């Protein structure tokens, strides 16, 4: 999470009016981890499209986590 904050702390900060949270590093970790995991599990295949899909799915999952945690769902 953000700077090691627990999810319940982030929710409390939002409830108290926090409105700017930097999640870029967390999303970059999701990208790097998904790339590593896919390549490690599929060493015999070279398919950049499948790597891209694995990364896209992982980052999308993490974005949805932040949208829910920060209370942003349905507000756009």
From TrEMBL:
GO terms for molecular function: aldehyde-lyase activity; zinc ion binding. Transmembrane segments: none annotated. Coiled coil: none annotated. One of its GO terms (biological process) is carbohydrate metabolic process. Gene3D superfamilies: Aldolase class I (3.20.20.70). InterPro entries: Aldolase_TIM, FBA_II. This is Uncharacterized protein. It comes from marine sediment metagenome.
């Amino acid at each position: 999470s953000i700077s090691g904050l627990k999810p319940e702390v982030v929710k409390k900060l939002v409830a108290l009016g926090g409105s700017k949270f930097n999640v870029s590093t967390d999303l970059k970790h999701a990208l790097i981890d998904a790339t590593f995991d896919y390549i490690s599990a599929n060493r015999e295949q070279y398919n950049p499209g499948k790597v891209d899909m694995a990364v896209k799915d992982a980052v999308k999952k993490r974005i949805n986590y932040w949208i829910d945690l920060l209370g942003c769902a349905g507000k756009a």
